[in-house]
Design brief:
- The structure is a single chain.
- By secondary structure, the protein is of the alpha+beta class.
- It has two domains: about 70 residues, Histidine-containing Protein, Chain: A; about 50 residues, LysM domain (Membrane-bound Lytic Murein Transglycosylase D, Chain A, Roll), CATH 3.10.350.
- It is built from five helices and five strands; from the N terminus they run H-H-E-E-H-E-E-H-H-E.
- It has a three-stranded mixed β-sheet.
- Helix 4 packs across helix 5.
- The longest helix is centred in the middle third of the chain and has 14 residues.
- It starts with a helix and ends with a strand.
- The mean pLDDT is about 95.
Length: about 130
C-alpha cells in the first residue's frame, strides 16, 4: 500500500512549485492517493508555468510512475508578470525558467532597451522558451 506522506515528501518540490506560483494564478486543488499513486490536481495560469512544473516533476522522478497528475492551464502560451519593487529580470527568469541567465530573452520578447531598468508597474509577457 502506498504511503501518502512518503509520496508527498518525494514530490514536495512539485507541490511547492504550484504554491509558489499561486500569486500568478496557480492553484493546488488536491494532493491525495489514487490507488498506489500520489494524485496532484491543480491549474496553472500559462504554458510557461506548466513547463516549469513539468521540470520539477521530471527532476523528482523522470518516470513519475508513482504520480497521477491533473494539472491544466487556464491561460495561453505567455505568462504576464507585472514588475514590483525589488524585481529583477534575472530573478523572474530564475523563477519561471529555472535559469537566471534567460533574462535577455525576456527583454528581447518585450522590446526592452535596458533589461536593468524596467519601471515598476510594467507588465511583461514571458514567452515559452526552449
Amino acid at each position: 500500500m502506498a504511503d501518502l506522506n512518503v509520496l508527498k515528501q518525494k514530490y514536495a518540490p512539485v507541490i511547492d512549485a504550484l504554491q509558489r506560483f499561486a500569486p500568478y494564478g496557480a492553484t493546488l486543488d488536491a494532493v491525495d492517493l489514487a490507488g498506489e499513486q500520489l494524485h496532484i490536481r491543480g491549474t496553472v495560469p500559462s504554458k510557461v508555468v506548466l513547463e516549469r512544473v513539468w521540470d520539477y516533476i521530471k527532476k523528482v522522478d523522470p518516470t513519475y510512475s508513482d504520480l497521477k497528475h491533473e494539472i491544466g492551464t487556464t491561460g495561453g502560451e505567455t505568462q504576464p508578470v507585472t514588475i514590483k519593487s525589488g524585481d529583477t529580470l534575472s530573478a523572474i527568469s530564475l523563477l519561471f525558467y529555472g535559469n537566471a541567465n534567460k533574462y535577455p530573452q525576456i527583454a528581447k520578447a518585450n522590446g526592452l532597451a535596458d533589461p536593468n531598468n524596467v519601471p515598476i508597474g510594467t507588465t511583461l509577457q514571458l514567452p515559452l522558451l526552449s
